[in-house]
Write a structure and sequence with these properties.
Length: 234
């Protein structure tokens, strides 16, 4: 397999017996792999912006979910895949939005892990070559199918990202308040934390930018967000 450039994977795992075969397999696949054995080291390493983080939940210092939350709060935009040996906890974890992109229960096969990492990189636009090729004009939203296209290419969005974009697009060039987005997409009282909204908007922007569309999500300070189809200097 030929990669346009070495894509970087950070493995956060305190058990050597699990970490070593993981690192070896990913290196053989052509990734540049770093390994840390604690949550704090993971957070310290994130500014180097790996494309994918494979994050164990059971870490000796900081719980993996908290690492995930702090990483997103700090603006980390790469893909995060959570792995956990806590049987039966995966459903609960998936239901909470900590900003992870994928989840895998231990024990897992290395082949499955490799496939998931490849899929994550495709979905998050981790391939720089693919992003540079795409020069579509704007977005096309198929509301019934809940799919978004940039030119002929589908933009892979999560359910929440789609809903946020859909509301913004229906109100194109107008400001949609944070409260309305929180209420419509998360079904929550907006006096609660809107950090989740900011994280979702951040990832939505990243995905739109990675496919080269001219539509942009603009933050209107203290009010909300607006979808504009302007040029980059508008
Ligand atoms: Ca562990």
């Amino acid at each position: 397999m030929l990669l346009p450039m070495a894509q970087r994977v950070l493995v956060v795992e305190d058990e050597e017996d699990i970490a070593f075969p993981l690192v070896r397999t990913l290196e053989r696949e052509g990734y540049e792999v770093s390994w840390v054995d604690s949550g704090q080291k993971a957070l310290d390493t994130l500014p180097s912006a790996p494309e994918v983080v494979i994050l164990d939940l059971g870490l000796p210092d900081i719980d993996g979910l908290e690492v995930c939350r702090r990483a997103r709060a700090a603006g980390f935009e790469g893909a995060i895949m959570i792995v956990t040996a806590r049987a039966g906890e995966l459903d609960r974890v998936v239901g909470l939005d900590y900003g992870a992109d994928d989840y895998l229960a231990k024990p897992f096969g290395l082949a499955e892990l490799q496939a998931r990492v490849r899929a994550l990189l495709r979905r998050t636009g981790g391939s720089a070559a693919a992003g540079e090729e795409a020069k579509p004009d704007g977005l096309r939203i198929d509301v019934d199918a809940r799919r978004v296209y940039a030119g002929d290419d589908e933009v892979p969005l999560t359910g929440k990202e789609f809903e946020v974009l859909n509301i913004l697009a229906a109100n194109r060039d107008k400001v949609v308040s944070r409260g309305r987005l929180m209420a419509d997409v998360w079904d929550e009282n907006w006096y609660g934390s809107t950090k989740t909204l900011d994280v979702t908007i951040g990832r939505l922007r990243q995905k739109l930018e990675s496919v080269g569309v001219t539509d942009r999500v603009v933050a209107v300070r203290g009010v909300g967000f607006r979808l504009e189809g302007g040029s980059p200097d508008a």
